[in-house]
Design goal:
Radius of gyration: 6 Å
Helix content: 10-25%
Oligomer: single chain
Distance between the termini: 5 Å
Strand content: under 5%
Number of strands: 0
Mean pLDDT: 57
């Protein structure tokens, strides 16, 4: 996925939208 902006455990936008879910 795009781990640049959306990290697995609370990245920049990961924490807002689950992160791990968007990572995939």
């Amino acid at each position: 996925g795009r781990r640049r902006v959306r990290l697995g455990s609370g990245g920049r936008r990961g924490r807002r939208v689950g992160g791990d879910a968007l990572r995939r």
